[in-house]
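Request: Have a read of the protein record below and say how the chain folds.
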Amino acid sequence: MLRLDDLYRMTAYIYGDRNSTRPKEATFAHFVEVCGMLTVDERAKKKEGFDLADALCKALGWFFPLLAKMGVSSAEELVFRKYPLVCPYCRKAPHDDWACKQVRGTEATLDHNAVRNAFQQNWDKRPVGLDAWRAMFQQIYPRNVNDGPRSVIGG
């Protein structure tokens, strides 16, 4: 079973030599540029030769080496700190859309201590394989075929 950290370490290793002399700011700039490609599909702009799967792979190909340059030892831990089996804003699964619309992301509206507590309480229940990560996000932010469009990047 392929874990998120396995994919992270493998990708960071593959591109490590190429990125060894590149400053982290330049790596970040390339990552942002590739993420911009992902919006082409969402905005119904047609770009010849554009393939969403290729663009996503390319984004991970820049994101994971960027994490490595920043000294991140575990992509799983990084993601789970933000999404510890619950939405970080309403701290529910499934998330409460109305409550989340009230949160502005500031200290006064986002309870960072509660998210840290959820991280600690749920650490042993974190997803193991890539399918488990997908299932976790589906539990937090359920989708069905009747849902309207969402951001390609933001879900």
